[in-house]
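INFO  loader      accepted 1 record
INFO  loader      residues=755
INFO  predictor   begin
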Amino acid sequence: MTKERIVGTSVPRLEGRDKVTGQARYVDDMVLPGMIYGATVRSRIPRGKIKRISFGPGIDWSEFVIVTSKDIPGKNCIALIEDDQPCLADGVANHPEEAILLLAHPDRHLLPKAVEAVSIEYDPLPGIFTMGEGEERSQIIWGADNIFKTYLIEKGDVDAVWENAEYIIEGEYRTGAQEQLYIETNGMIAAFDLQQGLTVWGSLQCPYYVHKALMKLCDLPADQVRVVQLETGGAFGGKEEYPSMIAGHAALLAMKSGKPVKIVYDRMEDMVATTKRHPSRTRHRTAVSKDGRILGGEIEFTIDGGAYETLSPVVLSRGAIHSGGPYYWPSVRIRAKAVATNAPPHGAFRGFGAPQSLFALERHMDRIAQAVGLSPVEIRRRNFLKPGETTVTGQTVREEIDLDRLLNRALELSDYQAKKEKFTRENHRSGSKKGIGLAAFLHGAGFTGSGERYLGSVVGVEAWADGSVRVLVSSTEFGQGTKTVLCQIAAEALGLRYEDVEIAQPDTHEVPNSGPTVASRTIMVVGKLVQSAALGIRQTLTAGGMLGESYSPEEFRAACRSYVAEHGKFRSLARYEQPDDIVWDEEKYRGSAYAAFAWAVYVAEVTVDLTTYKVSVDDFVALQEVGKVLHPVLAKGQIIGGVAQAIGFALYEKVVWEKGRMQNGQMTNYIMPTSADLPTIRVYFEELGNVHGAFGAKGIGELPMDGPAPAIANAIEDALSVPFNSIPLLPEDIFDALGEKVAAESAVSSARGER
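INFO  predictor   done
INFO  writer      dumping tokens
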């Protein structure tokens, strides 16, 4: 057995060499014999009845494969939670860019002209374009009331807290849509054979989501549908549910044409037609004691789901559960709802609802501090959750987390107090103003409540006669390090070298369903199963007398050779079993929402240029407790990347909507931060371990998306003494707010003068 620890060290990335040398194979690198190319004809209106489709002159339409909803052999839906979203619109279009028909041709360069030559005549219907319009129900566009899903979370006696409150603080906070903007756009290849069935290859996060959708759409049994993930150039949630749509389109064209079909979106189509982060509105009404302790409150969390339900219920759930943050609420009532609008459906994006609700909470905490007359630091300190106390869902905190200590360390690392005093002294003397702000937050790892039990994830570890080991999971690599860390876990559990372990390509004909690669669950949940399956290999060999408790690589190889010779294939499977202390009441939405939380305090330092009104983030401290760091370089990279993405969420990335359609679907006018716009992001970890995670790990992929936006907004208010309660916060927003402040101050001065 190797005596060197593998977990906790920064081993080389498993796929790193192939990526940097150009050997990695992405979907657009793949060519099959006889392959043709597909394109999508989309709705030009937000809502209306489809009257007539005509095919214009100047195109030899006999050369094209044409697919409409009438060609769908199964159910016309993208199977997910509900079956409300059609694969191709049938009679009615419900959002701009909705797919109506498909074209395919051997020459991909002829497709754009053909798409433009298809004319669709509509009877337009009135649309709904904001959450407020959806709530007013002037038009019913989904169900009976335009509401996809509601949740009610109640704890304590909220109605009794108001009469004992010294302060009642109210606030409304909004966040905008955000584009995932992965480097590689969505792409799929499909091939169909009457004997072998349907195979799709593509850029995706969740092979078994696509598998489920294709079975229903194409009316095929499970063994006749095969989904293979190719190298995937980024995802961030944007390739969780949407690949089922593009895979369905490629599959329908392949089934009709009898040829392999490739569909790869260009950047504009990918931006305007696919999912985004849900826009949100959060309203807080909080009862606070004289000494600044939260007595209770009401929280209304609302998200814009777009035209179809997709993943809105689970995004809503996580946002609602996280809306109370890392604080103790003796009483709370949280009402959450997802509203339908005539925009393309919003979907998964890193953080999954938590960045929206935590932005609201951490802005609100600063507002409470001002009302009570305490500092932002002290108001948080007085309300932090402690071990033994309960979250908003009534989950008892069993971890020995010390949020006071975490806060103190973040303040020390950022030199918070000295900088705050310095900025206060110097801000009146310059043409720019500086501020510093903080945010404290938490993020639950894994599916909510009973979700992991429902999934029942399975992983495998396989040993070969030569002593090599292969990890079998459907969990996918898209830049975050899945392959590397799962191989580390298996190697550590078996006492082997990292180089002796490989991981299978995610292929639904080859690997078990380990669940989707989402929800900060891969290393904590799937990794723990990999650890168990690897130990199963070791225990089998030991129990069979083929291996001792301690062994050399040669002895392990000999034992594997003996086992395979005697028994054949040597595979160990592990299935998820919900721990006894994870108890969840789905009806009341109470109990243990997550097996573990990661905890964090972030501090942002900003400069506001009063000539251009641009905000620069000058320094950023990201301190988090994550159980156990399994790969320091990858873990730090996850935090830096998440903070960078969240800086875009806060200050740059504004989706411009007009009647449900994104108007700035290009990287020339949808602005994201470049490396030149980012500060030094200083990353620090605390490690308390986690009994539910592989070697003590928790999930960290989504955590760094949650805290930067409110920390930055709090810092901007610190600099300007003007509150900002919606993001993204662009220079023109700051210009307008400062203008309003000057006008208000002038009006007060004039009134005093008149008196």
